[in-house]
Amino acid sequence: MPQLSTRITSLNEGGSDGWEVFYRARALVAAGEQVTELTIGEHDIRTDSAVLDAMNASAQGGHTGYAMVPGIAPLRAEIAARVTARTGVPTGAANVLITPGGQAALFAAHLAVLDPGDTALYIDPFYATYPGTIRAASGVAVPVRTRAANAFLPSAQAIEELAFEHEARSLLINTPNNPTGTVYPADCLQAIAAACQHRDLWLISDEVYDTQVWEGAHLSPRALPGMAERTLVVGSMSKSHAMTGSRIGWIVAPEPVIERLIDLATNTTYGVPGFIQDAALFALRTGDGPEAAVSAPFLRRRARVLEELARHESVTAIPSQGAMYLMLDIRRTGLSGRAFAEALLDARRIAVMPGESFGQSAAGHIRVALTVDDDSLVRAIRCLCTFAREYADAA
Q: Which residues form the Aminotransferase class I/classII large domain (predicted)?
């Protein structure tokens, strides 16, 4: 067999994609085991039936052929109006490209700003696909390490130093953050913006959790002075409207960037099915109410988990202001996040994500997704804490 490309064989550094515990849990479920899955960010509700009805009506009405590659005009305009209203930055349809989900948007954004061999910075902890996405775009992925003691907020000085050392071309950030739940405050984002301008970096801002803010407020860095011309924003219907499987997202960027990204889409995805776009348009036009209904369970469950954690000393929560996760510190057990997650799955059939799946900054932590019903979640957290105490007492 001919040799595969270095690009494709080096996507997962060290051969791991970080999802081993998740795969093991799913294998146990497939074998008939009862497992409480607190791993991936998948809602425990399905897409609203009214949105599915709109999707079906569009498909039955004939919108099953090729759709316009940049996205249908009404959807691009709706997203532009939404972004303008929420950020205060004038945005038109020409600033929007519809993509097959946020992940495709992340890949396209990096292809737009990187030449082969260019360095792209990203914040550690990170969503598990970030470094692989950069490598897939033939970039060199360099993490900006953060500290749990500082709620995993990035240091602008560290960004500046790494950008200078590696002659970086771009920086990828994510707020509200997956996996930590941290919402970057205004002063942090202003410092990041200043670093990007000083080092002439493109900023790729993953904002797919912008409807899940529990404390503080979400600020898109594109709204900061001098940033609209160097920022590419990634958005998605997945988290806001429980449309994960529909694979529909977008990029908001300067018009010249979108023009080139349309060229890319023409030669890769060739757009998103029209009936899915019509369903997304219907969902966005229903207003904020459905989005609030999708997000409400996570706010409620977050409060219940924090209340339960307050009763235990072996596990502590990293302060979280948004998203559908909590990052828990289990270092008192003496175990790594990976070892703890494996042992917990073996002994208690509770599946969580090791912190190490999201980078070395999260070593000794685990991520818990708030994606099962309230009572099951609290029981699982109580069991997790009891399990952790056994190791902590022995340490």
A: 35-382
